[in-house]
Amino acid sequence: MATIKEIAELAGVSTTTVSYALNRSGSVSESTRRKILRIVEEIGYQPNKTAVSLRTSKTRTIGVVAEDLTVFVTPEIVDGICEYAEQAGYHIILDNLRVFHKVGNSFQALSHYHDEIRQLTDATLHDTVDGILYVGIHCRDVAEIVSSFERPVACIYCYSSSANAYSFFVDDETAAFQATEHLIRLGHRRIAVLTGPVDSLPSQSRLRGYQKAILQNDIVINPHYFQVGDWSQESGYELAKRLFSLRSHPTAVFSLNDYMAFGVLQAAKEAGLSVPEDVSVIGFDNQPVSRYCTPALSTLAPPLRELGSGAAASLIALLEGRAVPRKGKAFACQYVERQSVAKARR
Amino acid sequence: MATIKEIAELAGVSTTTVSYALNRSGSVSESTRRKILRIVEEIGYQPNKTAVSLRTSKTRTIGVVAEDLTVFVTPEIVDGICEYAEQAGYHIILDNLRVFHKVGNSFQALSHYHDEIRQLTDATLHDTVDGILYVGIHCRDVAEIVSSFERPVACIYCYSSSANAYSFFVDDETAAFQATEHLIRLGHRRIAVLTGPVDSLPSQSRLRGYQKAILQNDIVINPHYFQVGDWSQESGYELAKRLFSLRSHPTAVFSLNDYMAFGVLQAAKEAGLSVPEDVSVIGFDNQPVSRYCTPALSTLAPPLRELGSGAAASLIALLEGRAVPRKGKAFACQYVERQSVAKARR
DNA sequence: GAAATCGACTGAAACGTTTCATTCGTTTCA
DNA sequence: TGAAACGAATGAAACGTTTCAGTCGATTTC
């Protein structure tokens, strides 16, 4: 591989001049700059990244720390990151934590969780990245984790209450509000909601959105329409069975995640109710599967790719000393209309 | 951040000695080595990776070039890579090509495909990685692409006929053979097969496996049982409809991918045939969705994680000058028993 | 008892850049 | 006309390691 020294010799100038010409710093006459660029082109010279990093102590690399790459949200987020980072001339170093395992239908941190994180921050990423993007698998406060990072960090699909981190997460409340409003505008008044565990943050926010819409539209709340599940298809099925055996069963079910909605679909079929004619169903998450069930599930889609590229954009802006608009942002979901929602029967 | 110089001063020795002590090269007395290690521990010194790279021209980083991160096979492969690389002390630089788009149900390269690749090899990965792992989205020869890489490369979920690359791919033929044998052992004789497009390599291999099993078991081939689809659910549906309207319809359908199998399930239901009682269905790929359809689809699962970690292991062995067993390997699939297969009716 | 060997340790160069401080000739301006 | 300012170019140090080629004293060998 050619070095700057060879280019300098060929051009009959010093390495300093070559460096200045290439970086548009210092002052170089137009004619020698052109001569240098021509030779660079000819030889196919590429500055040695390692040497540049050593000298400037910037790596133009950002570390992507993913809690679990195989959870369906992660790849698309990471893709969004890659897309932005690439065009900005940054490399991505990927680290998959893999420290959660499924317990029932929620995730629990493994015991070596913190060791893993520490090792990561100490040994793995030190002086290898300029900044870190932390990609969570569900919305919660990860301050405890990211505050130990010694580089600028942005959280994605989760948030941090610590001062050193930006956060890019889903606006669950507004999305749930809009979905509920949508059902109401379609004439539904008996709208049940299936929540996740009460201590789940996304569940709480989504429920808040639902309740706000119900309240704003002066709909009387039937306590039977409010059911707490555990995110699993089975719990959705059980809960919906109960719902459909009510003498005044709901005409619409808003499941706060897709899996429970699948259970609702199944229960409806068994109860002899057809979706969407007799009962409308809306899910949340836009799991890949929701396109393939019958009927295809209408659901709320988090803008995963935008979450990733938005976070990457802010982090890189920060790294380069440019103004960064805000300390984070809540991203709106998109309602994906498929075949499980219709007007309420008169 | 502390440097080797500070450690040297604190220990009252030269930087050379510190370096030797840390790398177990040169000869250092046991007592000074211990003294040095104690100080290193105390200060929390970490060698500067960039400086080491510059000096040794090894980056301990491997580039993962993924054709499409959002295709379902990729994340698990990449996870396997990460897992191995991490414990071997290597970093992963991720690059997502994103150069394919869906045309109907197969993928086609975008027009800027080769520009993208060239830019990648020239600018992006040069002197940044020691070797490259190329992760394909379907099995085919990628020699044209990877032969331009100027580093050792291993192909995953695809293969390269060029000399410079290792290949780690799925043994489609054996898997299809075993699935067909499985059906035969369950008493099935009228076994239909749904292939993908004739020019598709995986389709060809899988079909070969099917035919071998049929032939070996002296089953007479009914040409009507052989149908060519385009991998889509719709084509599976249409083909299966034709199959089930035959006066002597098959008792088992082997779909060479999962999506077409979903179509088969749908067609069976509409034809009044219950799966698996009246007809058994086996898919291929183990798409995440296959677990959620009804009945849950029995299918063949490529060992994605193993593919990734196996390739990473070989590449790293090669980079470190250790003996590498072979130039590549075909990995066996695992048959995933779910609810779509049963004994043939008497 | 001189030569050879050995173990412990070190000085300094090298990896390929960036950038500070400086030089040198030309132009501008009071 | 002389000083100041400026544009173009450069020498050399620095970033933090690794490693070649030694030095030096102690021990072994014949």
Blueprint (SSEs and pairs):
Two copies of one chain form a homodimer.
Chain A: H1 4-11, H2 15-23, H3 30-43, H4 49-56, E1 61-66, H5 73-87, E2 91-96, E3 100-103, E4 106-109, H6 113-124, E5 131-135, H7 143-146, E6 153-156, E7 165-170, H8 172-185, E8 191-195, H9 201-216, E9 226-228, H10 233-245, E10 252-255, H11 258-270, E11 280-282, E12 299-301, H12 304-319, E13 328-331, E14 334-336
Parallel strand pairs in A: 1-2, 1-5, 5-6, 6-7, 7-13, 8-9, 8-10, 10-11
Antiparallel strand pairs in A: 3-4, 12-14
The structure holds a DNA duplex (30 and 30 nucleotides).
Describe the structure.
The structure is a homodimer of 346-residue chains. By secondary structure, chain A is α/β, with parallel strands linked by helices. Chain A has three domains: 44 residues, lambda repressor-like DNA-binding domains (434 Repressor (Amino-terminal Domain)), CATH 1.10.260.40; 145 residues, Response regulator (Rossmann fold), CATH 3.40.50; 131 residues, 3-Layer(aba) Sandwich (Rossmann fold), CATH 3.40.50. Helix content of chain A is 41%, strand content 17%. Chain A has a six-stranded parallel β-sheet with strand order 2-1-5-6-7-13, covered by helices on one side. A four-stranded parallel β-sheet of chain A has the order 9-8-10-11, with helices on both faces. The radius of gyration of chain A is 26 Å and the shape is elongated. At the A-B interface, helix 4, helix 5, strand 2 and helix 6 of A face helix 4, helix 5, strand 2 and helix 6 of B.
